[in-house]
Amino acid sequence: MSAERLDVAIDAHVDWPLPGTEIESFTKRILNACAERIDVAGEVSVLYVDDAEIHELNRTYRNVDRPTDVLSFAMLEGEDDFPDFEAPAMLGDIVVSVDKAREQAEEYGHSLEREMAFLLVHGFLHLNGYDHQDEASEREMFGLQDEILGTLGITR
């Protein structure tokens, strides 16, 4: 992997769930692999929360009254023109529910590390315009997710 493409701000409102893995290096490694693969650079913030906090965010911003696993708040969504100055683009915010990650890792029978990485990749791709609203876009997005996780050596 080449130099870091992203300036990543990380905050955790919960205890980091991966003992022996440092929150900053894990988060930056995953997100920079995404940025390299889809050829973007900029700033992104990541917030790790519990189900109660992501539930509130989901209700407030999406009108969905339940917790979810990951939320993405894109800053450049729908923007055609970028500023003329030489500042890194603020891509947006990713919010990950550590509670949901634990639950889904157990449900899917893979490691918590894999689930946390998957949620970061999924959220980052959403920040950059990828979606899964129809079969073709889902195939593209999920294929990219699998490719990025494979490149990182993170498998089920």
Automatic annotation (TrEMBL):
Binding, Zn(2+): H122, H126, H132
Record-linked PROSITE patterns: UPF0054
InterPro entries assigned: MetalPrtase_cat_dom_sf_prd (IPR023091), YbeY (IPR002036), YbeY_CS (IPR020549)
Swiss-Prot/TrEMBL keywords: Cytoplasm, Endonuclease, Hydrolase, Metal-binding, Nuclease, Ribosome biogenesis, rRNA processing, Zinc
Single GO MF descriptor: metalloendopeptidase activity
Cellular component terms per the entry's GO annotation: cytoplasm
Main subcellular localisation: cytoplasm
Cellular compartment(s): Cytoplasm
EC number of the protein: 3.1.-.-
Cofactor note: Binds 1 zinc ion.
Domain of life of the source: Bacteria
One GO-annotated biological process of the protein: rRNA processing
Cofactor(s) required for function per UniProt: Zn(2+)
Classification via Pfam families: YbeY
Gene3D superfamilies attached to this UniProt entry: Metalloproteases ('zincins'), catalytic domain
HAMAP family: Endoribonucl_YbeY (MF_00009)
NCBIfam families listed in its UniProt record: rRNA maturation RNase YbeY (TIGR00043)
Function noted in UniProt: Single strand-specific metallo-endoribonuclease involved in late-stage 70S ribosome quality control and in maturation of the 3' terminus of the 16S rRNA.
Family (UniProt): Belongs to the endoribonuclease YbeY family.
Record-given protein name: Endoribonuclease YbeY
Natural source organism: Alicyclobacillus acidoterrestris (strain ATCC 49025 / DSM 3922 / CIP 106132 / NCIMB 13137 / GD3B)
